[in-house]
């Protein structure tokens, strides 16, 4: 067994979660499709859980991550309906 000491990241401030931009998520998801790379390896490299990465892959496959990649303002559906009426 190797003497691998995991890296620990301490989040200071009121936020307890990291925020990933859409571009970062897409780049990380793209890494999982490279040859000889597994989702677990990529997740470990970026300090996220594999199940989170699988969820991002699913969203990317559905086009949910690319829909907001254009950096355009997203309007809630309820607001859109009000504007239509």
UniProtKB/TrEMBL annotation:
- UniProt GO molecular function: sequence-specific DNA binding; transposase activity
Tell me a GO biological process for this protein: DNA transposition
Pfam families in the record, alphabetically?
Answer: HTH_Tnp_1
Highest taxon in the source lineage: Bacteria
The cross-references to InterPro entries, in alphabetical order and at most eight, read:
Transposase_8, Trp_repressor/repl_initiator, WH-like_DNA-bd_sf
Membership in a protein family: Belongs to the transposase 8 family.
Listed name of the protein: Transposase
């Amino acid at each position: 067994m190797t003497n691998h000491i995991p890296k620990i990241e301490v989040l200071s401030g009121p936020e307890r979660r990291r925020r990933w931009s859409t571009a970062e998520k897409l780049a990380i998801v793209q890494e999982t499709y490279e040859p000889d790379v597994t989702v677990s390896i990529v997740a470990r490299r970026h300090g996220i859980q594999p199940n989170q990465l699988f969820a991002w892959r699913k969203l990317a496959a559905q086009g949910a991550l690319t829909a907001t990649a254009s950096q355009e303002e997203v309007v809630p559906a309820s607001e859109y309906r009000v504007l239509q009426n």
